[in-house]
Amino acid sequence: MAQRAAVRWHIAVFLAPAVLVYTAIMIVPLFGTLNLSLFNLEAGLDGAKERVFVGLANFATLFGDPRWSDSFWNALGNNAWFFVVHMLVQNPIGIALAAILSSPRLRFAAFYRTAIFIPTILSFVIVGFVWKLILSPIWGIAPGMLDAVGLKALFAPWLGKEDYALTTLALISVWQFVGIPMMLIYAALLSIPDEVIEAAEMDGVTGWAQFWKIKLPLILPSIGIISILTFVGNFNAFDLIYVAQGALAGPNFATDILGTFLYRTFFGFQLQLGDPHMGATIATAMFFIILIGVCVYLFAIQTRLRRYQF
Fold it and tell me: How do residues 97-109 score in pLDDT, each as one tens digit?
C-alpha cells in the first residue's frame, strides 16, 4: 500500500505542472471568451462607453440581425464544405496510401512515406504563397504544365473564381495534410496481429480482398479518430485562407470561413472597426459547434466502433 501511495504521489507531482499549464493557456482563455461574449459596450450618461452585461443579446444579434447572420451562415457553410472536401478526398487517399505503403513487397516505402509527409511540416505561409505562384494565370507554372499534356483548355484562375476558390484551397490543404491520416492508418495497419493476417491468407483472402474484409473493419476506430480530428481542424481553420485570400476571404467572401470572419470582427480590418464582444460571440459559437460535433462522435459513433476493437 505504501508503494502504491508513493507511485500515486509521484504521478500527481508529475502531472500538476502540466495541469497548471493547460489551465493557463486553454481553460482560462476559454472562460474569458465566454464571459466576454455576454457583455457589450454601451454609451453611458457622460457619453463614455461602458462595459454592460447583455446576456445572450450578442447571440441574438449574430443569428437574428441580417448584417451579421448572413456573414455567419455564409462562413459556416463554407466551413462545412471545406470539411466535406477533406473527408471525401483527404482521408480516403490517406487510407489508400497507407494500405499501399504497408505492403511488405513495396520497395522504397520509407522514402515514399517521408516524401508524402514532408508538406505537413511546412508553414502555412510557405504553402499558401507557393500555391498562389503556381496557380497564377500570369506567372504561374500550372498553365504550362497543363499545356504540356494537352489540357491547357482546362486551366482557369481558380483562386479568382467564386465557384472554385474554396474548393481549390481545400484541395491545397488536402495536399498539405494527407500525410497525417496516412501515417495514423499506417500505424493502425502495422498493429494488426500477424496471426489474423496469416489466418486470412490460409483461407485464401489476399490482396485488396484482405484489406476490405479483414483490415478495414479492424482499423475503423482509427478512421473514426481521424474523422473527428479532421472535423476539429477544419472548423478551426484560418491560416491558409488568410495567407492565400487575405482577411476579406475573396473573391466576394467566397472563401470566408468562421476563422476569417472571427478575425475581421474581433480585430477589425480596413474600414471595419474591431468589436471584441461580437468576436468573442463568434468564437463561442465556433466552440459549441465543435463541441456538438465531438459529442456526436463520442456518443453516437465511437460506441458502435468499439465492437471492432480487439
Answer: 999 998 888 889 8
